[in-house]
Amino acid sequence: MSAPKSSEAAAAAAANAANAASSASAKADSATAASSSSSSSSSSSSPSSLLSQADLLKLMATLRVGSGGSQGTAPKDVQSAAVKEYKFWSTQPVPKIDENPTEHGPIEKKRVEDISKNPYPLPSSFEWDSIDMTDDKQVQEVYTLLYENYVEDDDNMFRFDYSPDFLRWALMPPGFKREWHVGVRSASNKKLVAFISGIPQMMRAYKDKVQMVEINYLCVHKKLRSKRLAPVLIKEITRRVNLHDIWQAVYTAGVVLPKPVAQNRYYHRSLNPKKLIDIGFSRLHRNMTMARTIKLYKVAEQPQLEGFRSLRDSDIPQVTTLLNRYLDQFQLAPVFSEEEVRHWITPRKGVIDAYVVQQPGTNKLTDLCSFYHLPSTVIGHPQHSTLRAAYSFYNVTANPTAERWHDLMGDALIMAKQLDMDVFNALNVMENEQFLKHLKFGEGDGHLQYYLYNWKCPQVPTNQVGLVLL
Ligand code: MYA
To answer: For residue 73, which of 23, 219, 343, 449 sits 20 to 30 Å off, Cα-Cα?
Structure first.
């Protein structure tokens, strides 16, 4: 996953980076700015306020290749992936990067008896922990690790800021296991320095229903990067999951690894265009004034569809049927229990909002739309510290015409605006293409690759993906 922004802004940032690379003084200035912003947002990881010569050289190298070191050594595009060696991933049960599977099924088969009961060894300065997400203090530790070190966009302008409440929601669905919230701590001061998580999810890939885990929030502290800690985290969570007789996983990443089962893109709908332009998320179009841009993206004050309202607990049984029936048509999709739908779709302030359309005069629900709240830190900006973003989650309509999609998601935009969101993001999954263009979404620079672990199946087209990971 990568913290996305509009593709035009990405081009502008790339151009800035190219300019910076040709001017030593510009580089020194931007380096100083970057360093003071990270030290002001972080109390524990405090690099010295001036970068060393070596750090400057590293930064220059990053600017020249135009892509963030924040995603490890993995490439961001398919061309570079084709020539990469993948020392770790070539040892794992995943298709090779140039393979195009036509068959369906597991890549390797093992038995629980063959799985070690002992954790993978770590260097002596580190130790494993299972994070207790019911303990506020430990949630705060995960929050801080991610707040300071998790996914940034290619130009290191924005970093995801998952709230503590969001992390509780994302990591404690029905059937969650504490031992799948894997932490690495410093042996000396017990500080959390790395994390990876798994949650259970029944998935369907084409016709096969398979019990999987969703892997997310893989994070290694910036000071410990490129030391091959990520492969150890991945092997350890695999071991802990295998001990429960589960052998498949689904995950997403902004980087290209062997081998995506689907490759999707982010789209962005401005709700607060002035702020988005001010922080470099998007650019003022040629021949457009700020006033005209603001007018272009204005939405109505109140939702327009008759019967549109917030989802309530009593809606859950009907919504479960509506959602599962809808997801049935996609080649890669979760299969939800009623309890899971209750967990994932029930509104939680500042985390997830969901709305239904109730047919006037009846109890029948015809539509569902939902979005989650995922702000990003605006790195080193003098005025703005946070980008408030809504992300499209699961949307369903029983009457899937283009017009209905425009009306339903138009109302979702209105609700997001009421909640003071700056931007509404959506992937080109499911039937989202039906509304993206009409509702003035722009294509982003963020690609999102979907992966299956230990499962082979043919490539899934973008609009056949029925899964949204957080
Ligand atoms: S995606 C979000 C990932 N997190 C970030 O981008 C946050 C910022 N970055 C970091 O914290 C670090 O850069 C990370 C890498 C931790 C990403 N997924 O330790 P290294 C490979 C998988 O020296 P570091 C999410 O959370 C890379 O190709 N592999 O590198 C889903 C190389 O392998 P190879 C990745 O930069 C995670 C190796 O790691 C990723 O210090 C799904 C280098 O290791 C990536 N995003 O740390 C995980 N990035 O030599 C897989 C780099 O082969 C789950 N690499 O090229 C698999 C299923 C497990 C369960 C199975 C159960 C059955």
So the answer is: 23
